[in-house]
């Protein structure tokens, strides 16, 4: 349990920092930076909770708010050094989406939704904060163009439900399906994978 | 009832395809295309259900998800032929907004909202998926600039409430008010109607 | 109570007009203008109500809808004269955000949220309508770049909770914390305050 919380917080830290980095690039002021960090970190979970009509987590538990605030301040102060720690950030972020995916899937299961919807909820939890971040910054959401991010979440959610049919313990299922998300994302980035293009050469040139 | 379901599915197909067409124009990858198709088809109903605090329909009934997935795949494969069937697509889409409008109005009535709000809910159900689609694609929503689309829904909703004061049967009211939406939209497109411009010649030139 | 309602309506008028002004600049048609006026005026409160799972106010009380409709029509007709009354508009708007902040804070308190979240709800109520307006118009929300607006709301909310620890009457607390919002905003605009920049000279030049 304590590991779970630890990883959850690491994920929130990583998402907040990724929000700060984009807000800095857009030359936002301190308030804007904080809001972007905030929606990046909690946007996905909030949409999920609104859709399944559950209580919104960060509104009842201030830990998230404090963590986001602290990470944002630290990220702004050390923004010139962030390049050096990008690698570890990327790891936190990857662990974060793995965890957020599982949290979303499990919330869906607990509310009695069908597996397909639970996988969608998991993916939404992990990815939608980034979508809101990009909309607020007036960009086409990166996830719609570079999608192994979401694909990793979907496959992790799928693994979760496949393993549920076995007699493995709940903890093991969580760890295994989380590992699937992490592995796919690491492989995808290492080997620069992307979904097969559906556009012919000619179509790309027309662009 | 069976006709109702048939038209509902046709509407979902038409909206999905309209989403795919825009995502293709933006050169999105397969995942992005699917998401855009999805929000175009269910975005309006989802916003409505969140606002009136009802269960979100597609989360409990997977038919929508399957229909959207299948239409998107077909639309991507036959995207070069879509020009030829645009006319029939346009018909589905028009029938779709008529139906979505009535569905939205009736959901509002069932939850006890005042007529004006029910008309807004109907219009939202029919039009808001397109708005989210345009926001995600980083465009000013087309509906804010070419609005006979929404006007048709509003007038259809109005017809619904006017007819409710008569002794017509519920089914007839649904068919008549749906026909109003369809007729206005067909006439508007045929004769290229738009709302009266409020801008003077000079103002347009300044632009 | 009657003063409260009067100010609430003034706030709605001011927000609607600010929406109309931006929609006109984007050369939207009458329907688009109305929608932008609408989301500017009720967007913040709607998000708040969805997040705290309360009934959405404007859906049960049509006064808001009528006020927004009437202000929009008047604003469009007299749009060339709006420059002259900008000063009074700005006052309404400032009074409006003060009131919206307090309304949001009190709704949060009534639902038992912690003070920090209540302040966020108040700020959201006052500022988020403008954020949705800017997103729909395809702009980076102005609030993320010119933030004394939000800062005034935050400090007003903070004042509210500090005064709650005293024995002042509820009415006095509302008036005092509302005044803080108004005073800070007036001072900020008069002296052109902004949050301290976090960007070095060099960083700004790189931009």
TrEMBL record, chains A, B, C:
<feature type="domain" description="Glycine transporter">
    <location>
        <begin position="91"/>
        <end position="164"/>
    </location>
</feature>
<feature type="transmembrane region" description="Helical">
    <location>
        <begin position="89"/>
        <end position="106"/>
    </location>
</feature>
<dbReference type="GO" id="GO:0005886">
    <property type="term" value="C:plasma membrane"/>
</dbReference>
<feature type="domain" description="Glycine transporter">
    <location>
        <begin position="6"/>
        <end position="79"/>
    </location>
</feature>
<dbReference type="Pfam" id="PF03458">
    <property type="entry name" value="Gly_transporter"/>
</dbReference>
<comment type="similarity">
    <text>Belongs to the UPF0126 family.</text>
</comment>
<keyword id="KW-1003">Cell membrane</keyword>
<feature type="transmembrane region" description="Helical">
    <location>
        <begin position="172"/>
        <end position="195"/>
    </location>
</feature>
<feature type="transmembrane region" description="Helical">
    <location>
        <begin position="57"/>
        <end position="77"/>
    </location>
</feature>
<protein>
    <recommendedName>
        <fullName>Glycine transporter domain-containing protein</fullName>
    </recommendedName>
</protein>
<keyword id="KW-0812">Transmembrane</keyword>
<feature type="transmembrane region" description="Helical">
    <location>
        <begin position="31"/>
        <end position="51"/>
    </location>
</feature>
<keyword id="KW-1133">Transmembrane helix</keyword>
<feature type="transmembrane region" description="Helical">
    <location>
        <begin position="148"/>
        <end position="166"/>
    </location>
</feature>
<feature type="transmembrane region" description="Helical">
    <location>
        <begin position="112"/>
        <end position="136"/>
    </location>
</feature>
<keyword id="KW-0472">Membrane</keyword>
<feature type="transmembrane region" description="Helical">
    <location>
        <begin position="6"/>
        <end position="24"/>
    </location>
</feature>
<dbReference type="InterPro" id="IPR005115">
    <property type="entry name" value="Gly_transporter"/>
</dbReference>
């Amino acid at each position: 349990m304590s590991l779970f919380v630890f990883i959850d917080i690491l994920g929130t830290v990583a998402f907040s920092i990724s929000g700060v980095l984009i807000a800095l690039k857009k030359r936002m002021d301190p308030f804007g930076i904080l809001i972007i960090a905030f929606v990046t970190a909690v946007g996905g979970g909030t949409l999920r909770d609104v859709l399944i009509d559950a209580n919104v987590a960060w509104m009842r538990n201030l830990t998230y708010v404090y963590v986001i605030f602290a990470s944002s301040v630290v990220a702004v102060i050390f923004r010139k050094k962030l390049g050096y720690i990008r690698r570890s950030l990327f790891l936190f972020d990857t662990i974060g989406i793995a965890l957020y995916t599982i949290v979303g899937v499990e919330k869906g299961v607990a509310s009695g939704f069908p597996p397909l919807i639970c996988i969608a909820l998991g993916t939404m939890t992990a990815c939608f904060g980034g979508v809101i971040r990009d909309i607020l910054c007036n960009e086409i959401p990166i996830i719609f163009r570079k999608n192994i991010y979401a694909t990793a979440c979907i496959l992790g959610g799928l693994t979760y439900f496949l393993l549920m049919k076995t007699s493995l313990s709940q903890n093991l299922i969580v760890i295994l399906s989380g590992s699937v998300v992490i592995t796919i994302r690491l492989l995808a980035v290492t080997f620069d994978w992307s979904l097969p293009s559906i556009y012919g050469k000619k179509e790309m040139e027309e662009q």
